[in-house]
Amino acid sequence: MRRRTFIHAAAAAVLAASLPIAPAAFAQGSWPTGKPITYLVPFPAGGTTDVLGRIIGQKLGPALGTTVVVDNKGGAGGSIGSEIAARAAPDGYTLLGGTISSHAINVSLYPRLGYDPVKSFTPITLIGTNPVVLVVSANSPYKTLKDVLAASKSKNGGLSSASAGTGTSQHLALELLAYKSGVKFTHVPYKGSGPAIQDVIAGQVDMMFDTTVVAAPHIQSGKLRAIAVTSSKRLASLPDVPTVAESGIQGLRDFEVVSWQAVFAPAGTPAPIVGRLHDEIARILALPETQERLRGFGMEPANLTVEQISAFQKAEVAKWAQVIKAANVKID
Asked: 76: closest CA among 37, 54, 105?
């Protein structure tokens, strides 16, 4: 208990300067007692999920007359923090920054996951989506997706493809490409996107799927060549890069992979609380400065109802379960 108290106190102190409080509203206790809201981030500080949680928390606290404390509980692809959130009281005082990993992929990768990504949570808001892009070194001979597939077919074991780790959206984008095209590749997992993409730039690994957040600066600097994006439409930030579906290759016409970020509450959270949180966070996400920041991350802001988010998540769980089973993906 002492350790938990210390952690929460430290987190509150760190965020005090960045999470302004409306004193009058706080005194009124409009949520409904003024007790702080814990926003669990199931990844280390500094990542996209953490940054988004702080952007939302800075404005959500004053809007509800309280404060929001971001609490990072990283590990196991987001599973550890998600399990903590799943077991929290469904009273509106615990929120979770969920992702494609924690709430769509992990259930098919971890045999003893301590929560159900659908049944253990109530969706609040889909923050946005972020497609990934297939890249090769600027010195690579491959210029199109057809080049990549033809070269991988002709090479024993296929072309090598880096990722930020087994089970990440980068890895599963590769597995989906292999599954739909019938072409084999050699997956090379790294501990994070940074070292992985540097080896692609250096030509030590043939290619890589990565988020536009990470890859775009290297594409713009000329160090990487973008082959295709995994969204259903071309990106405004990379207008000359075709989608995978545009390749015209049999089996790839419905190819789409988007990483995504969302906000969840524990299952059983009352509908009025869910509705208020949804409306307040949607208002924050619609602000021009928030939209600008999201697009700066390479994200496409979302605007879905709670029911639409639920349907989207269930479809994602089913989609990745099929890919993981077909590709026989195992956690290293």
From this structure: 105
Q: What angle do CA 186, 191, 192 make, to 5 degrees?
A: 100
Backbone angles phi, psi at 204, to 5 degrees: -80, -20
Under 8 Å between Cβ of 207 and 134:
yes
Burial class for 12, CB neighbours closer than 10 Å (0-12, 13-18, 19+): middle
Tokens of 257: 């992979």
CA distances to 90, 197, 228, 254 from 211, in Å? 33, 11, 12, 19
pTM metric for this prediction: 0.74
pLDDT tens track for 223-257: 999 999 998 889 888 899 999 999 888 889 889 88
186 φ, ψ (degrees, to nearest 5): -105, 115
CA distance 188 to 126: 31
What letter would DSSP give residue 246?
G
Distance CA 120, CA 96 (A): 12
What is the amino acid identity at position 215?
A
- Per-residue pLDDT tens digits for 71-110: 999 887 788 999 999 999 999 999 999 999 899 999 998 8
